[in-house]
Amino acid sequence: MSAHAPLDFAEAREALVDAGRRLAARGLVTGTSGNLSVRVGDRVIATPSGAPLDSLVIDRLSVITMDGEHVSGAAATSEVPLHLAIYRATGAAAIAHTHAVASTAVSCVCNELPALHYNVLQLGGAPRTARYATFGSEQLGVNVVEALGDGRSAALMQNHGSVSFGADLAQACDRLELLEWLCQLHIEAHRMGSPRVLTADELLAAQSAFDANLRRLRPTR
Fold it and tell me: Distance of alpha carbon 101 from its chain centroid, rounded?
């Protein structure tokens, strides 16, 4: 199976449970904060409402349609409108959202995370902060999709947390962890003074280097 081969329902459920444990083990979730989902065809498997991500139960995972209709399992997370908005607007196959401390803190003060490190390019550019809206609302989904525009794969959510998407749950979690690291870097750098931000030319050069490395890693036929 390729890295991003489509999953069947059984594989998707197992991947979601594993992703929940991973994020909890890395300290990105506390208690029942945060939620995950994975798309399988025209269905979405999501974490149940109020379920701790470190102890998800396969049989209780919620299955919904792309219209938000409940199909099976427990009641889905209240953030279904957010997840569905991202699926509809992007090519996402999986979504991860948490209230990790550094990301949440930075979301309260920055409209866009400054590019202190070239790894912002791995998220499609400097992550933006979606305007605040009540959790679980349709407006929150609208605001996050706006922040994800121009090829971004992760965003901060004002006074709320962070969200990312990917071609599978592993990639979505990788991106969420990277965003948290970038936020931690932002906080630490500002404790020391006024950090230098990378210029547009420097980011362009870094992107060219990333692209060159990717071409070298691609197998030849």
Answer: 15
Provide the 10 A C-beta neighbour count for residue 102.
19
Active site residues: 79
Residue in the structure block whose two tokens are 């798309």: 39
The pLDDT tens digits for 136-165 are: 999 999 999 999 999 999 999 999 999 999
Bridge partners (DSSP) listed for residue 94: 38, 166
- Beta-sheet strands, E only, within 61-151: 62-65, 70-72, 94-98, 129-130
pTM score > 0.90 for this model? yes
DSSP alpha helices (H): ranges in the chain?
A: 9-25, 80-89, 101-107, 138-147, 169-192, 200-217
CA 198, distance to chain mean position in Å, is: 23
